[in-house]
Each structure stands twice: as structure tokens, then as C-alpha cells.
Amino acid sequence: MPYLDIVTNLMLFILSTVAATVVLGQINVLIPDGGAPSQGATAPKPEVKPNEQDLRLFISVKKDQLLVWSATELEGTLLAPKLVLKRSGADGDRCDGDYMCESGYCESKTGQCEAPKPKADAPPAPRQMVFDYRILNDTLFQIVTQRYSGQKRALPTYRITLQPDQSVPYSTVVALMTAVRCKMPEFGKSSDPCLLPSTDIEIKDVAKFPTGIDPETLTYDTERIEYDPAKHALFSGIILSDGFLN
Q1: Of 14, 63, 127, 201, whose CB has the highest number of CB atoms within 10 Å?
Q2: 105-114: pLDDT as tens digits
Q3: Helical (H) or strand (E) element with 54
Q4: Which of 193, 240, 238 is nearest to 220 (CA)?
Q5: Long-range contact list for 142-146, CB < 8 A, 24+ apart?
Q6: What are the Cα distances from residue 91, in Å, to 84, 114, 156, 189?
Q7: Digit-coded pLDDT (tens) for 82-92
């Protein structure tokens, strides 16, 4: 009896093994060599026109330097920036406004940054973080002139990301936003405000705005007016981003 039990169990094991081999061994996987893509497949995107190319520019600011670069690598990269600026605005540096001086004071007679005279009843003002905003402005002006001048510049191309770290004071952020928005005037001169691209659908009403410009809001229709960097905004769509690490 024990021998018959062993033989019976052995036969059952052999039969189950053969059955599994038959089921698994007869599976055929046929992979086609090639074929037309299905309708749901992602088609390659057409090439973006130069006047519609969003450069994805970044201005990254640390406590000791400023970098201009683009995520598209069309205008520099983070490792090889388009522009690198060191801090400026020390006493004795040339200036035409208080915003250009670390002391927060530009002597109009000499055109130089100076330490303000301390007041007896007030503590001395803290030093500010200053960069040469004119060099930054000139660099952005050259970029938009080369890429968009004389064309109908698309709205997405006006975006730029300002990425300061936590050491950058608010006054510096405001100065940077001013420097990227419009072409700055020549040193010591004033200029009229630039026109900003409009997202308002009413600006496209030819009867209401025949010139494509709204004189009250100083905005214009980007689809009707060719871009002029001397009159129109450089980068008006400013995106604030934190998280830049030293």
C-alpha cells in the first residue's frame, strides 16, 4: 500500500507538470516588425516660428551675483549663462538714481553714490543689494531686438522668470522688475513709458481701437502691430519664483 501511494502521487505530479508545460509552452508572441502609428499616437509638434518662440528666460539672483539664462538653452544655460553680473553700487560708483546705490543715496551734483549724512534721531539705513541694471536692460534689449524686432511678437514670448533667493531684499526685486519691463532711457535722461501687450479681447476691435493701441491703458494689440523694442515692452509677463540655491 505505501508503494502504491508513492506511485500514485508520482503520477499525479508528472501529469500536472506535463499539463503546465503544454499550456505555457504553446504561447506564441508575435511582434510586428513595423506599422503605421495608431490615431491616438502623439504626432511630432511642428516647428515653432521665431516670433512665437518662448525663450523661457530666467534671472536668477544670489547674494553676490545675478545670472541670465534660458531653459531652452537659446540664450545661455545655468552653467554657461548669457550674462553674469556682480554686485555694484558702492560709494563712488556712477549713478543717476538712488536705486543704483547700496547706500540708497545718489548725489545729484556729482552723479556718484555716497553715504547719506546720518541723522541724529535715526539709525543709519541698511545697505542695499544693487546690480548694474542698465547692463541687464541692455542685454534683454539686444535679445528681443535680434529675435522679435519688426515682427508680430506672440504673447507667450513676453514671459520671464525672476528667481531670487531668500537673501535678496524686496527693494532689489522691485528694481529688477523695472529693469526687465521696458527699455531704460540713456544715462541721466528720462523717457516715456513703453506700451504693454494686451490680453484684452476688446483691443482687437478695429472700430474702437483703429490703431491697435489703447491710449488709456498704454497697451497694444500684438496681432496687428509689429514689435518695436524701443517702444514696446521687453518682458512684461514677470513670474516670481523662489527656490534658487547658492
Answers
A1: 127
A2: 999 889 899 9
A3: none
A4: 193
A5: 143/55, 143/57, 143/75, 143/82, 144/227, 144/229, 144/234, 144/235, 145/229
A6: 22, 5, 40, 22
A7: 999 999 999 99
